[in-house]
C-alpha cells in the first residue's frame, strides 16, 4: 500500500495530536505487518521545515511543501481542493490527522477523530477548529472510507453522534513512552511537586485546578509546588496572572512546552499528576504518568476513566473541594500513593503502540475495500 499521512500537527511543538500522529506513524512503519508498504508523511508550512533526521526516525518518506498552513487548511476544508495529486503526491490511502478529509482524486480517505469537544463546547475552541469542524466534521466523517479513533469512548461518540457503523471505526489507542530510568518502581518522592501536563486551554480546567491548589496552600503552607507543563494559549492569560498574586506567587511554576528530551525529568520530579480536564478524548499524560510510576488524580469525564481505571483517583472536575481532597490524600498518604502507582504500571500495560499499529493496518485495509465498493456502486452495472 502507498500511504500518505498528514503530519502537519507534529511539525513544530508536538502537543497531543502531534504526539499521537508522530508515534503512530513510527509504530506503523516499524511493525512487521507494514513490510512492503510505502509510507510518506505530508508537511506544509511557509517557514517551518521538517527536522533533520525525521525521515529516518519515522521510517517514512517526507512530502514537504512550502504552503502556509492556514491557507491550505481553508482550501482543503472549505473547497476540498487541491487534491494531493496536484501537490505532487500519489497514494492509495490518504490519512488525515483530524476529522476533515485530505482531498484526493483516487485514494481511499481516512480521518482521525480525537474527541468531539468542538461540537459540545465550540466556544472553547479556536481558529480553524471553531470555524470549520462543527460545520463540516459530520459530513467528512460519514464520507470517510475508515475512521481512526483514539479511545473506545471517542469511538462510541462517533457512532452515536455521526451514525457511523462500528465496522468502519478502528480504535488505535496510544501506547506509553519508553523511559530511560523511570518505569520500574513507584515514583513518589517526598519532596515532589504536583504536576499538570497539557496545553493551557479552557477544557483543561486550569481555573478549577488553581482553586483546588489554593485551598491546599491555605490549609497547609508546606504544600509542594504546582508545576504547569504546557504551551499557553490566549485562554491562559487570566490563569497566568493569578500566579503572580498571593497565595500562588512563588508556588506555581509555568514551564511552557516541555520537549521530549526534558519530559522524563519533568515526571521524575513529580509526586503526582493531576488532570482535571472537562473532557479528554484519551489523555496521554495520564498514560505517561502511569507508565512512569507517578500516581494520578484525574477527572471522571470523557475517556479518562477508560484510561486510568482503578489505578488512581477520579473526581468531578467541577468540584474544587473534591479535587483538593484527592490531591491532599495523594500527597500525604504514602501507602495509598504507592499502591496507585503500582496499579498504574499494570494498567499501562493494557496500551501499546504495537497494538495500535496492528489496528491501523486493519483500518487501511478496510478503507481500500470500502473505496473499491463505492467506486463499483458509482460505476453501476456493466
Layout of secondary structure:
Layout: E1 2-6, H1 16-29, E2 38-44, H2 54-58, E3 61-65, H3 69-79, E4 93-95, E5 108-113, H4 117-120, H5 127-143, E6 146-149, H6 152-162, E7 169-171, E8 193-197, H7 206-219, E9 226-229, H8 237-242, E10 252-254, H9 260-268, E11 270-275, H10 284-292, E12 296-299, H11 304-308, E13 313-315, H12 320-332, H13 334-348, H14 353-379
Parallel strand pairs: 1-2, 1-4, 2-3, 4-5, 5-6, 6-7, 8-9, 8-11, 9-10, 11-12, 12-13
Helix pairs in contact: 1-14, 7-12, 10-13
Description:
The protein has 382 residues and is an alpha/beta fold. The protein has two domains: 2-175 and 352-379, Glycogen Phosphorylase B (Rossmann fold, 3-Layer(aba) Sandwich), CATH 3.40.50.2000; 193-348, Rossmann fold (3-Layer(aba) Sandwich), CATH 3.40.50. It contains 14 helices and 13 strands. The chain has helices at residues 16-29, 54-58, 69-79, 117-120, 127-143, 152-162, 206-219, 237-242, 260-268, 284-292, 304-308, 320-332, 334-348, 353-379; strands at 2-6, 38-44, 61-65, 93-95, 108-113, 146-149, 169-171, 193-197, 226-229, 252-254, 270-275, 296-299, 313-315. It has a seven-stranded parallel β-sheet, sandwiched between helices. Strands 10-9-8-11-12-13 form a six-stranded parallel β-sheet, sandwiched between helices. Helix 1 (16-29) packs across helix 14 (353-379), helix 7 (206-219) packs across helix 12 (320-332) and helix 10 packs across helix 13. The protein is globular. The two termini are 28 Å apart. The model has no long low-confidence stretch (mean pLDDT 95).
Amino acid at each position: 500500500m502507498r500511504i500518505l499521512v498528514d503530519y502537519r500537527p507534529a511539525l513544530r511543538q508536538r502537543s497531543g495530536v502531534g504526539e499521537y500522529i508522530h508515534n503512530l506513524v513510527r509504530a506503523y512503519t516499524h511493525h512487521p505487518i507494514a513490510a512492503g508498504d510505502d509510507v510518506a508523511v505530508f508537511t506544509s508550512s511557509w517557514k517551518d521545515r521538517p527536522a533533520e533526521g525525521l525521515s529516518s526516525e519515522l521510517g517514512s518518506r517526507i512530502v514537504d511543501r512550502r504552503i502556509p498552513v492556514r491557507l491550505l487548511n481553508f482550501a482543503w476544508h472549505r473547497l476540498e481542493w487541491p487534491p494531493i495529486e496536484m501537490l505532487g503526491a500519489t497514494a492509495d490511502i490518504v490519512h488525515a490527522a483530524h476529522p476533515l478529509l485530505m482531498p484526493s482524486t483516487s485514494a481511499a480517505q481516512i480521518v482521525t477523530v480525537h474527541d468531539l469537544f468542538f461540537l459540545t463546547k465550540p466556544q472553547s475552541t479556536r481558529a480553524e477548529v471553531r470555524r470549520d469542524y462543527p460545520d463540516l466534521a459530520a459530513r467528512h466523517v460519514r464520507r470517510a472510507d475508515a475512521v481512526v479513533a483514539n479511545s473506545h469512548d471517542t469511538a462510541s461518540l462517533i457512532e452515536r453522534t455521526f451514525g457511523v457503523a462500528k465496522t468502519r471505526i478502528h480504535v488505535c489507542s496510544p501506547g506509553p513512552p519508553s523511559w530511560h530510568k523511570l518505569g520500574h518502581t513507584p515514583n513518589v518522592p517526598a519532596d515532589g511537586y504536583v504536576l499538570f501536563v497539557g496545553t493551557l486551554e479552557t477544557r483543561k480546567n486550569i481555573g478549577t485546578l488553581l482553586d483546588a491548589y489554593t485551598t491546599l496552600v491555605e490549609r497547609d503552607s508546606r504544600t509542594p509546588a504546582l508545576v504547569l507543563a504546557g504551551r499557553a494559549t490566549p485562554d491562559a492569560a487570566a490563569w497566568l496572572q493569578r500566579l503572580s498574586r498571593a497565595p500562588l506567587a512563588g508556588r506555581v511554576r509555568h514551564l511552557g512546552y516541555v520537549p521530549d528530551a526534558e519530559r522524563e525529568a519533568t515526571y521524575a520530579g513529580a509526586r503526582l499528576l493531576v488532570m482535571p480536564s472537562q473532557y479528554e478524548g484519551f489523555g496521554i499524560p495520564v498514560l505517561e504518568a502511569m507508565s512512569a510510576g507517578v500516581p494520578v488524580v484525574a477527572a471522571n469525564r470523557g475517556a479518562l476513566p477508560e484510561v486510568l481505571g482503578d489505578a488512581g483517583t477520579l473526581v468531578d472536575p467541577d468540584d474544587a473541594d473534591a479535587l483538593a481532597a484527592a490531591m491532599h490524600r495523594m500527597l500525604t498518604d504514602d501507602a495509598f500513593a504507592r499502591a496507585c502507582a503500582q496499579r498504574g504500571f499494570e494498567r499501562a500495560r493494557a496500551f501499546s503502540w504495537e497494538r495500535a499499529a496492528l489496528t491501523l493496518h486493519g483500518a487501511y485495509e478496510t478503507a481500500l475495500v470500502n473505496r473499491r465498493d463505492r467506486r463499483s456502486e458509482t460505476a453501476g452495472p456493466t
